Amino acid sequence: MTRRATPAPVSELPSALPDTVPGCHELIHQLMQRLSWLEERVSLNSRNSSKPPSSDGPATPPARPSKSPSGKKLGGQPGHKGSFRAMVPEQDVQHRTQCQPPAQCDACGSAIKVDGDKPIRHQVFELPKIEPIVSEYVRLRGICSGCGRKHHGALPAGVPSGQLGPRALALVGTLAGQFHLTQRKVQAVLSHVMGIHFSLGAVSQAHGLVSQALDKPVAQLHAELLQAPVCHADETRHQNHQHTLWMWALLSDWGVRFRIDPSRGQMAAQLILGEQPGFVTVSDRYAGYNHLPLAQRQVCWAHLLRDFERIAQRSALPGRIGQRLLGYGYLLFRWRNEEKDARHFAWLQRRIRVQLELGHVQTQCKRTANTCANLLKMWPAMWTFLGNALVPPTNNAAERALRDYVIKRKLSYCTRSKRGMEFTERIFSTVQTCKMQARVAYDFVHEAVHSWIGHLHPPSLVPEHIHLQHPA
Whose CA is closest to 318, among 360, 348, 351, 352? Predict the structure, then answer.
């Protein structure tokens, strides 16, 4: 066991302590500021930073106070109508069996007369035994009688060159992209449930085939997103082997495009947003979006509330400024829910600006001054939603779109190849877009794979009304 090194004597630390009392006071002031910063870093949670709620420890106070128990029993209360599954029509039932009542009453022994007016219908749903359909194509060989060249029969149109058909490929893709299964679990589902036994390498290759089938639909999706009036943007970490990359998301009210990039800078943002986007971008205050004009930005007020919460936890004047800003932020959302018009917010804008200017000029906390200065610099981008009814004040839509990917990242941890990254981008773009449009992702992936194998026109992830707005 290695012993910890003994600290050097104070006299041997070069320039560690000042020689004058004012110098000591300055050093103490610097150490107190650093201690305050470290204490603040330790107390960061999902309420005062961008950390996810899953990272909160047991000592983190709940976002909402718990309700006092009502004293009622769990479940439906007396008078509740309840909800029941609708019966399948009789013509759609595969098997129907009549259950006869007993011949005699078990109470008095009298004969029982059958009354068929109002029978009790009981329906049971069962899955059929799943067995794979194996089709074999015998490719006969032939030899040219003239030159001796060997030939063989070609596969019929629409038959894949691999061993998995379109439905199996679509299942492998959606199990990973929509239901967050790892490759090993996808292999287990195919083996235990479907009766198809393939190696992990075959599952990985299937992901690559699905990715190729989704290439054109996702590219068309991205092109149409760039023409939307309002888009949300966000990014989160992506792990590839030992390298940290970034998953970017761009979404409108009908679709979302994911893209993995090695960088988190402005160049990466331009690749997914476009060099000169014509839409209003809703995002957080991250510097990667600073190249966008302030008139075409909306800063997320949910993130601003977390910033105000962090400032409010500080002491003295910065804490009081943060508490006022936090109260004004809650008032903004209340007025927003009450559908107040833009003129009603003028008073609130003046009050918030006064507090930001006060926080900028105060000297007790440099971090508060920097935050307030940054907000004053992007002041127009805080209020774009007041002049454009299509722009929401928060970036919650982007965070919801990224949530499924983050869950998948926690389960699978990382990708290991370019093929894996492309599959992740395209399958999550497809699944999340189908989710936003209330479409079945499996059906779309199956149609895309079937079209790709048969060299047919691929299906589109773009809704019909968007096609009509931007005809080719």
Answer: 360
Per-residue DSSP letter, 83: -
Q: How confident is the model at residue 65 (pLDDT cuts 50, 70, 90)?
A: low
* pLDDT tens, position by position, 163-207: 999 999 999 999 999 999 999 999 999 999 999 999 999 999 999
Least confident interval from 247-251, 313-317, 330-334, 426-430: 313-317
What integer pLDDT is reported at residue 16 of this predicted model? 66
Domain range list for the chain: 230-397
DSSP β-bridge partners for residue 240 = 243, 415
- Tell me the C-alpha distance between 28 and 17, whole Å: 10
The single-letter DSSP state of residue 415 is B
Q: Which residues lie below 8 Å from residue 194, measured CB to CB, with a gap of 6+?
A: 130, 132, 168, 171
Closest CA to 246 of 222, 265, 231: 265
Picking from 40, 65, 67, 37, the residue whose alpha carbon sits closest to that of residue 51 is: 40
Closest CA to 211 of 405, 429, 439, 404: 429
* Amino acid identity, position 210: V
* pTM: predicted TM-score of the whole model, two decimal places: 0.84
**pLDDT of 28 over the 90 cut:** no
Q: Give the pLDDT mean for 77-97.
A: 87
Give Cα separations from 204 to 176, 326, 404, 419 (angstroms): 11, 49, 20, 9
Residues 6+ apart with CB under 8 A from 324: 351, 355
pLDDT, mean of residues 228-239: 96
User: What secondary structure does DSSP assign to 110-150, as a single string?
Assistant: PBPPP--SSPPP-----PPPP----------EEE-TTT--E
- Which residues on adjacent β-strands are paired with residue 258? 249
Q: Is 240 helix (H, G, I), strand (E, B) or coil?
A: strand
Q: What is the pLDDT of residues 110-126, one digit of tens each?
A: 998 888 788 888 999 99
Question: Can you tell me the distance from the alpha carbon of 232 to that of 464, in angstroms, rounded to the nearest whole number?
Answer: 21
What per-residue string of b and e applies to 344-374 under the rule 16 or more CB within 10 Å gives b?
ebeebbeebeebbebbbebeebeebbebbee
Backbone torsions φ then ψ of 232, nearest 5 degrees: -100, 145
Residue 277 burial by CB count (10 A; 0-12/13-18/19+): exposed, middle or buried?
Answer: buried
Check if the beta carbon of residue 121 is closer than 8 Å to that of residue 85: no
**Residue showing tokens 């439905």:** 167
Q: What's phi and psi for 129, nearest 5 deg?
A: -65, 125
